[in-house]
Amino acid sequence: MALDLSIPVLVVDDYKTMVRIIRNLLKQIGFEDVDEAADGTEALSKLKERPYGLVISDWNMEPMTGYELLKQVRNDERLSGVPFIMVTAEAKSENVIAAKKAGVNNYIVKPFNAQTLKSKIETVFDG
């Protein structure tokens, strides 16, 4: 299946610079419809407002972490099928295992480039 670059993507990170970096990487890959949220709570309300084809979320955020957001998304039957990629600065195996158990589709450790992001996204949609 070819990667559908027209899908809306939601980038969730409380660090504006990281949002800008991921947004730019997504644009390099060819995604046009990129939205953002500053934390899990804002992301959840945006996810309920419109359908997104992909969520790329940071792990460490306040007040709702990316991990908590992932669990909420997977527990909501309308959102449970949304592909979800977790971004984190730490590659702790217990975090990776917890995210996998919670239903994450893929995992990216910072720093990363457009090629890494693209291959992780392709894995999610080809998987």
UniProtKB/TrEMBL annotation:
Residues in coiled coil: none
Keywords noted in UniProt: Phosphoprotein, Transcription, Transcription regulation
Source organism, top-level taxon: Bacteria
Residue numbers carrying 4-aspartylphosphate: D58
SMART domains listed in its UniProt record: REC
A GO biological process held by the record: phosphorelay signal transduction system
Bilayer-spanning residue ranges: none
UniProt domain Response regulatory: residue ranges: 8-125
Name of the protein in its database record: Two-component system chemotaxis response regulator CheY
